[in-house]
Amino acid sequence: MTETRTSLNPRTALERTAWPEVDPSFLDAISAHAEERTFADGDVVFEVGQPTYDFLYIEQGAVDVLDRADGRAVVSLEAGTFLGELGMLMGQGAFMAGIARGGLKARVVPRDVFTELVATVPAIGDVVIPAFIARRRLLVDWHEGGLIIAGSMQDRRTVRLLEFVERSGIPHRWCELADLPGSIDHPGDRPVAVVGDSRVLLAPTPRHLAVAIGFDLRADASDIFDVVVVGAGPAGLGAAVYATSEGLCTLVIEDTAIGGQAGTSSRIENYLGFPTGLSGAELARRGAAQAFKFGAKLTVPRRATSLVRGDDGLFHVVLDDERCVRTRSVVLATGLQYRRLPIDGLEDYEGQGVYYAATDLEARLCRDSEAVVVGGGNSAGQAAMFLSRYASRVHLVVRRDGLSETMSSYLSDRILPHERIELHTRSEVVDVGGSDGALQRVTLRDADGRTRTLHASALFIMIGAVASTDWVGDLVTRDPNGMVITGRDARADARPYETSEPGVFAVGDVRAGSVKRVASAVGEGSVVISAIHAHLTEAVAS
Question: DSSP string spanning 27-38?
């Protein structure tokens, strides 16, 4: 960045959304709960690492938002706009600093009061929510945000960190280790993450990074939730939005990133209300913002490892750090995971040429080279179309005679004539190879036994997904494929989407018999809340 952006000069539609002109109704609603405060030049309005900070509407002067790593002003918020971004609703700590300038005079609303107003006062929420989402998007696009990931793209640890922050929509910058500011001390041979206060994390896992930037679970052992949703894909986010909007204390647990498998889709074109399509990541960001608006809590990346009913009558969800979360009801929305191909040595290239998602990050890694996509479903088709904008050639490999049985026609009609996509029917991948840990070749075999070796640097595997439900043990009934059985198939008196265990529900792709579509997953996530209300009411009565 070579200049400081100011809220007075919005140049794009996204910037205009980020810094809107507010009307009198907004100011009246804010003023009813605000106190007037003044700040001297140089006063710290909020600091990096601060757990929470208050909402400010700036009447006079400005707030310079600084990246503490190098002291640069990322943006200057001028009179007539307000302070904050999506992290304020999420309960995420500040990752940059705000410094007063020009005799700052502001109307200040305590954060807890403000979040309640966002959920209950349309004059506030209708302005703030789009602005906060746009500001987070701008920080991501600008590669700002007080977080630096430094390391080689040939190091799978670096790629793993970038996958986490990009899929989670966390603002960040990436650079080679040699390009880090000289003031940052590091060993020089391992990836590092530099948090806004110049704290250096050596080769952190996504979990360690999440804790450092305020994504940690803020819940005491004494906390009892009304609903714990396991999985933050479309079904889980749908459940979280409707649960919190109806007053249920809700926690969402996600083991990878917000959006689940759908979050890796480069473009979804058949979702109602978006005629030009939108990415899975954008849909997930909007859904998460709605859930945060109503007060949902989220922890990521954390994995649920067991589910039992305790002696206290509550469900105990044990996480992979052995922390136990107690809740009155559970929604299983873990979705499905793509199968791995049974090829020797495949795992040696995972993260270094073998991928299970096709996002901007993976697309950049296969720019101007050949890529192979395995799978005949919509996800594979979307990936092939998206990657064709970057790769010199995309090979789409399917076991069937064609695409008509497994892929929506709007996708197959584009793929078949595409000059940079080659379709290989009745074929499979039988071998991979490379050097220095990087994929360089993929071998295909067709139904007649003929083989062909492609000089490809990327292999995207998007085939028959499996349910990861072993962690629920014997508490709920599953079919032979691990899918969770619900409704009358599970128990004669079960409510819709309820499992064999009263109070445990399953929605989305993990549910046996579900329709594997984003829209149906969102629908199930929303509808299940009425059944949960009935369960909770009955539990109180008994």
Answer: HHHHHTT-EEEE
